[in-house]
Amino acid sequence: MKLPQKIAIALFGLILLSISYFTGRSDSFLLLSQFTVLFGLYLYLAATRDKISLAEITGFALLFRLLLLFLIPNLSEDVFRFIWDGKMWLNGLNAYTVLPSEATNQELQHLSPSLFNSLNSPAYYSIYPPINQLLFYIAALAENTTFSIVIIRLFVLAAEIGTLIILPKALVQFGHSAKNVIWYALNPLVILELTGSLHFEAFIIFFAVLACYHYKKGKWKKSAIWMGFAIAFKLIPVILLAAVFKKLSFKKWFQYCLIAGLVFAISIAPVLFSNGFKGMIESSSLYFKSFEFNGSIYYLSRAFGYWWKNYNIIATTGPLMGILSFISILVYNIMVKKSVSIAEKFMWTWFLYCLFATTLHPWYCLPLLAFGLLTHYKFPILWTFLIFFTYIGYTESGFQENLWITLMEYILLFTFVVFEIIGRRGSKFTPNSK
């Protein structure tokens, strides 16, 4: 590594520390300015990756994540719900059937008012799957909230390390340089949202890339097992089963879905036939009918609803977006050529899900980045920069979404997507098809 790269690495680490430990989510100008500089350094390092060894890329990626080991997340409160759920289980309460607000009425150990006040959804039952709850329970064994956060971060770090190991191998499989892992390893949004804010998309990415890797090796049964684990951590990856359609014979595809479904069923068995499952479904339903953030197609339908009905029609358009997402994913994977690689099918399938989502937080697009790196498309990288600007809506008193920022985000994103699609069709590139 030459001196310019060393300077860039040092600056990257310093700004990462500053944005993580000393910048509040409501400090919009400082937050976005630092992120922009951080992203610029990331682009420079990625562009000069030929001067950096793969070992150095992996080593610095791990170092930057370890710098955040004792961080109390400053961009999201989700981790406090994780710990709350774990402590409820520790007290013999079911997080799927007892609301946080109900638990505070009981004299229970470890459920402090300060922890409750940090929750962003105290009126909802937990929606996190049992395998996540197990990790929350382990973390809740620690008396101190900070130690609980560190324990959860160690789990997320384990998933991230797994991705840093498997992604370079998958890149080589799909005809790319292993050093292209730098686009994921040093991506500021990846570091801040996964290791920093402790979102469990880290597990989705690891298991889905592992599934992709084993499929490419011709071991589709192993691929199905890992896909089942991805679904176990968050139900959304079930859409990726459609991407395997036409890549296998119908019989093998059905077996693939059966294996993945069995892994998922085993993981969710503790609540499948209990009142807990009902509570989880109820909260998930409310999520689609009540929450909205950074939508694209949904926001267009919402605007039409205001014009037509003179009120927000999310109660009907929210579920409709889910149906349209399912149909679009199904149609794409039926119509797409068999020669399109499994990684590209994963990417477009996830992209379609994002387009119809009523709520699209920055970390939701991170699996798209991992899948995109296994193709020749670059728009997921751009999106990891643009989507961070949705944080501009946070203030000390609450949140008010800036729709101009959302509009610019999608105009720039869709323009680049169209540019890449046209450029790809005009090239003589032959995809690595398996």
From TrEMBL:
Q: Which positions, given as ranges, span the membrane?
A: 7-23, 29-47, 54-72, 123-142, 154-174, 194-213, 225-247, 253-274, 313-334, 346-364, 376-394, 403-422
Q: Which residues form a coiled coil?
A: none
- Pfam families according to UniProt: MptA_B_family
Keywords for the protein's UniProt record, in alphabetical order:
Membrane, Transmembrane, Transmembrane helix
Record's keyword annotation contains Oxidoreductase? no
Highest taxon, organism lineage: Bacteria
Quick check: keyword Transmembrane in the entry?
yes
What this protein is called in its record is: Mannosyltransferase
